[in-house]
Request: fold
Amino acid sequence: MRDLLGITGSPGTGKKTVAAIVGELLRTRPLALGDLAAKSTDGKEEGEVDVKEVRAELLKVDPPPSVIFGHLLPYVVTKAEVRTVFVLRCDPRVLKSRLAGRGYSARKVRDNVEAELIGVIQSDSIGTFGEAKVSELDTTSTPPRSTAEELVRRQGGASLARERIDWIRGYDSAEKLRSLLAT
Reply:
């Protein structure tokens, strides 16, 4: 399993939708790490994922995927296996609304919004795959098809955009942070 195109990001940033369109554009079937995680969590407490078990499930996939997506990507896939990783990002205020609309618990909404605010998936992706392999796309107001087309256009390119998204700059007061993180 080598030369993967990875798509990751916080829950609610559009990974599943964008990956499906990317698969259509590249004529391949994207693999959802969440599906593999579901197999590995059978019989465990909700939310408990053993990334080693998810990795073991990934290595069993035949034929190996060429496009893989999920928030677990930086914890399951190695640097040597990916060509390019796209981290989908969404303004935390919009993400909060999306996650609440999915019926997430107040705690789960707050935890995921906080993780997006401080860039947990972005930071972990850079830590795992290296600066040169990681690019970010803002999905806050971009339609999924446009995001997917941009991703396909940029994948594997020597000139991947390295501009980093920093949401914290927009939440520069305690009042704004309290408002965002209030449940």
In short: The CA atoms of residues 110 and 181 lie 6 Å apart.
